[in-house]
Design a protein that fits this description.
- The chain is of the alpha+beta class and about 280 residues long.
- It has one domain.
- The chain has 12 helices and 5 strands.
- Strand 3 and strand 4 form a beta hairpin.
- Helix 5 packs antiparallel against helix 6 and helix 5 runs antiparallel to helix 12.
- It is elongated and about 70 Å long.
- The N terminus is likely disordered.
């Protein structure tokens, strides 16, 4: 055989070019598809707890009687009472249940939330990262992101790594609700959330091994507001203890015109797998 014929057969360059081309193809496609929403459930800024009014009459006799003492108090007194009870409730809860958020930060953000209710005029409040970092350590968020990763990894295999073709079913997921046992701070300031969005922010591929690694964001929105049923029919022992605070809250929001607001939290997490 002539040298001109057998030398190219020993040269691995064409194979390398193929792998390089495939990797560049996946990377270039991924770049234009990012960020990509995997899941969206619920909506914030809706419902009775997101309404505001002046001199609203309670629907129930129970609430009418319960808020009677608060009605004669000034706005500043109600705000101070609300802060005092909220901060001490968080500190007391931490003593018995612990909290991934420090006592100092729990009390600080309780005060900031009430201040924003009084002066923010309904403007959306974006977390600076402190409460989001605490959320990431709770069993509720850990369980949620673990399920997301498991479903995403499975679908990445069936979709050959094309994440932009993947949508997770909203019927399989519920908005996260924080318990007193996992975080008294988050139970007091957030509780049950209203909106959840999960998106792929960045992804890298190892084409030779057919593996991928992705950075995702869990976006959570909640309404910091109170409805009549929150006061008259609180859920859980901790909520019953907080009824006097909720009465202050209800009067400020529904009889003094203070506007509820949306709180926004972004929690990064990562997943990896094969395709």
């Amino acid at each position: 055989m002539k040298k001109a014929n057998w030398l190219p057969e020993l040269n691995p360059f064409p194979t390398d070019v193929g792998l390089y081309s495939c990797h560049m193809s996946m990377a270039s496609k991924a770049k234009i598809k990012l960020p990509h929403t995997l899941l969206k459930i619920g909506e914030s800024g809706e419902g009775e707890d997101y309404t505001s009014s002046s001199n609203k009459k309670p629907k129930s006799k129970e609430l009418e009687e319960y808020i009677r003492p608060a009605q004669i108090m000034s706005d500043s007194f109600l705000a101070a009472d609300f802060k005092f009870g909220l901060k001490n409730g968080i500190s007391g809860g931490m003593f018995f249940a612990g909290d991934p958020i420090s006592n100092a930060n729990g009390r600080k953000y309780a005060e900031l939330f009430v201040d924003h209710l009084m002066t923010g005029n309904g403007k959306t409040w974006h977390d600076d990262g402190v409460l989001s970092a605490g959320m990431r350590l709770t069993p509720e968020v850990k369980s949620f992101t673990k399920r997301i990763c498991a479903d995403f990894k499975s679908l990445m295999q069936s979709k050959f790594g094309y994440f932009w073709d993947i949508k997770l079913s909203g019927r399989k997921y519920n908005n996260i609700s924080f318990s007193f046992g996992s975080s008294p701070t988050l139970k007091g300031l957030v509780g049950g959330t209203q909106k959840t969005v999960v998106s792929v922010e960045n992804i890298s591929y190892q084409t030779f091994h057919r593996t991928w690694s992705a950075n995702l964001i869990l976006h959570i929105e909640d309404d910091f507001g109170v409805s009549e049923s929150d006061v008259t029919n609180p859920r859980g022992a901790s909520a019953w203890v907080a009824k006097p605070l909720l009465a202050d809250f209800w009067v400020l929001q529904h009889q003094r015109g203070k506007k509820p607001f949306i709180t926004v939290f972004d929690i990064p997490f990562s997943c990896s797998g094969s395709y």
